[in-house]
From TrEMBL:
Protein name per UniProt: Zn(2)-C6 fungal-type domain-containing protein
Any GO MF annotation of the entry: DNA-binding transcription factor activity, RNA polymerase II-specific
PANTHER family: GLUCOSE TRANSPORT TRANSCRIPTION REGULATOR RGT1-RELATED-RELATED (PTHR31668), TRANSCRIPTIONAL ACTIVATOR PROTEIN DAL81 (PTHR31668:SF4)
Gene Ontology annotations for the cellular component aspect, listed alphabetically: nucleus
Length: 648
């Protein structure tokens, strides 16, 4: 393992603050495990009619026909309301397919799946699926590695016909990939890097099962004995390896980066080959739990610049959402029917990851969200203290479950605000006429309420303990920045579209200018906050290990600070330069922001349109805004235990 000396993800350190808190490193590392212990969504209330009307617990002992209340009062213990509800649900169940398997078996469509579903999709590893250069669901892991690590000149056909000097493009050590034993050792290193760095942020896999099922033995067939021995999906293996190559410091990749200006050409090739392999195996087309996970992991793996042909365009995120909808994970009743806690835990986390990513990315990149508020009836599950198994020492406590649920409830609340704004910005009428004033006032109110309710619980706390580790730092800073960048993105949206004032009265015109100044003030304060958080992470080298969580915040905050000529912009620039270790495109973002800052120093604040009046006439608060520096958080000594916190 080559990168073990630069990241700690499970050392047990945490920081404390009042109320619900961000998951500690150990909890964050075990979100997948925690999700399995959450009770399924509540099914139909089975209380009798008398207890239901009195809104009390209906307690019927085994073997008795009446509940305790009806026995004591000599009431008839009837269940007319329950029967009516059951008949209604049975009618709904008949109108949609049920019991689509969420097993990780090679045939995910269960025997009870309706014939129309099998006809439309069929088993995901059926013979009619095209193989890609010889790779199919029966391909052994060593053979897959043989193809994935082929020399770069083979990219035109993905697979090679002969080993040749083409390896020189990847550095001096790349020729060792000709050896099968070296390929296996290299692959294991990439897998461990994935679980140390990426899995802590996107816990969609079971590390123990993945390692056990990797099966690097070169057998002719991939036998299926038990669930844990079932072969892994080839595109899933490729995705994990591509992630590992982004962050690994294996000598082969170090040599590759040294040869290619700090960027790994092998890592880029693995991303391209992973995407092409997933497409060939119909990951984007066939609803299957494995395909959900692969899709959601491929999206942030890619270039995050939407201007790039291979950049973020939402395709794989949308594919993951379509797969989730195809499996009907958006139905509480379907989620409750998943009996396997491992499968249910994975689908719970996958759903919320997709739901949040859809909302935030739609706002950031001006796209129409795939999901509406009424597209799902599953909510965050109510924790039942009695559900905790005292005999299981590894099961999270009700307190830990509340922390987990509080964190994601806050994220979901912010996602709903972002989704609302994204839909407004998508409307052609907004492009033509501007954003309605009442909508702007509503967004200001919603964001302010969110801050009061959630920021102190999920953002960077006022007092940090020593030894604040990688997971704690990135998790808290990213959650904090997620809120603040919303103000910055809203500022840029208003600058582009303007505010529509239908009244045209002196009072309404004054409201428009007041709203502009408010957004300007909040956006500036938010940008300073993000710059400081980015500075903390950069000073510790954490952003070179971040799987595309903070980059949007750094870019938006950097753009605003550069246009205003604020020197704090250099914290964002340095952050993006460090980000380029894994995401090459951020280096160009850093250059663009730097050029914008230099131009502002020459011409003064410029490049503003509809918000120009708020920039020219800032409020007293924004005139006297104090930059939030790294020292403000770290207390000036570079360690994460300062006690200064900027009041938002």
């Amino acid at each position: 393992m080559q990168n073990g000396d630069h990241v700690r993800t499970d050392n047990g350190h945490s920081f404390s603050r009042p109320g619900l808190v961000l998951p500690t490193p150990s909890l964050q590392n075990q979100i997948h495990e925690l999700a399995k212990t959450l009770p399924p969504p509540r099914k139909q209330n089975t209380a009798c009619d008398a207890c239901r009307s009195r809104k009390v617990k209906c307690n019927r002992l085994p073997g008795q026909e009446k509940c305790q209340h009806c026995l004591s009062k000599n009431y008839p213990c009837t269940h007319y309301v329950q029967q009516a509800t059951s008949e209604k649900k049975r009618g709904a169940a008949a109108r949609r397919p049920r019991n689509i398997s969420t097993s990780s078996s090679s045939s995910p469509v269960s025997a009870s799946t309706p014939p129309w579903f099998k006809a439309a999709f069929g088993p995901w590893n059926s013979g009619r699926l095209q193989s890609y250069g010889g790779i199919n669901m029966q391909t052994t892991t060593p053979t897959l590695l043989h193809h994935l690590f082929a020399p770069p000149e083979s990219d035109s056909t993905f697979f090679f016909k002969s080993r040749s000097p083409g390896y020189a493009t990847w550095g001096e050590m790349a020729s060792k990939l000709e050896d099968e034993a070296f390929r296996a050792e290299f692959a294991l290193d990439l897998v461990e890097v994935y679980f140390q760095i990426v899995h802590t942020r996107l816990p969609l896999l079971n590390p123990l099962q993945f390692r056990a099922r990797l099966n690097l033995q070169a057998t002719q067939q991939r036998p299926t004995i038990t669930k844990q021995d079932e072969p892994l999906h080839p595109a899933l293996i490729a995705t994990v390896l591509a992630w590992g190559a982004k962050f690994s410091e294996h000598p082969l990749l170090v040599s590759d980066r040294d040869r290619n200006g700090g960027q790994s050409q092998l890592a880029k090739a693995l991303i391209d080959r992973t995407r092409e392999l997933a497409e060939s195996l119909k990951v984007h087309r066939i609803p299957n739990p494995n395909h959900v996970v692969i899709s959601l992991l491929i999206e942030p793996l890619q270039c995050q610049d939407p201007r790039n042909d291979n950049g973020f365009h939402g395709f794989w995120l949308n594919s993951g959402i379509r797969n989730l909808l195809g499996l009907q994970i958006n139905h509480k009743s379907v989620m409750a029917d998943i009996k396997d806690p491992e499968a249910r835990g994975t689908m719970i986390f996958a759903w919320w990851m997709a739901c949040l990513a859809d909302a935030f990315s739609s706002f950031y990149y001006r796209r129409k969200p795939m999901l509406d508020d009424d597209d799902y009836d599953i909510d965050f599950y109510t924790v039942d203290p009695n559900a905790h198994e005292a005999t299981d020492p590894t099961a999270p406590s009700p307190r830990e479950q509340l922390e987990f649920l509080g964190y994601y409830q806050a994220a979901h609340a912010l996602a709903r605000i972002s989704r609302t704004i994204a839909r407004r910005l998508w409307m052609p009428s907004t492009d033509q006429d501007g954003i309605p004033l009442d909508a702007i006032l509503s967004y200001i109110s919603d964001l302010s309420k969110w801050r009061d309710a959630h920021l102190s619980k999920v953002g960077v706390p006022p007092n940090l303990e020593a030894n604040w580790d990688f997971v704690s730092a990135v998790s808290a800073c990213a959650s904090d920045a997620q809120y603040h960048v919303t103000w910055v993105a809203l500022f840029f949206a208003m600058d582009e579209f303007g505010i529509r004032d239908d009244a045209f009265t002196p009072s309404s015109i004054n409201q428009v200018e007041t709203a502009k100044r408010k957004i300007m003030e909040e956006a500036l304060q938010a940008s300073l906050r993000i710059a400081a958080l980015a500075g903390v992470l950069t000073s510790n080298g954490y952003l070179k290990l971040d799987p595309a969580v903070m980059h949007v915040s750094c870019i938006n905050a950097g753009n605003l600070l550069a246009r205003l000529g604020r020197p704090e912009v250099f914290q964002c620039i340095k952050a993006l330069e460090q980000y380029s270790y894994a995401y090459e495109e951020t280096k160009e973002h850093a250059r663009e922001i730097n050029r914008e800052y230099d131009l502002t120093l020459q011409k003064g604040p410029h490049n503003f349109h509809e918000m120009a009046s708020a920039v020219r006439q800032p409020s007293p608060r924004s005139l006297h805004s104090e930059a939030m520096s790294v020292d403000a958080i770290t207390n000036g000594n570079g360690k994460h235990h300062g006690n200064t916190y900027m009041s938002i």
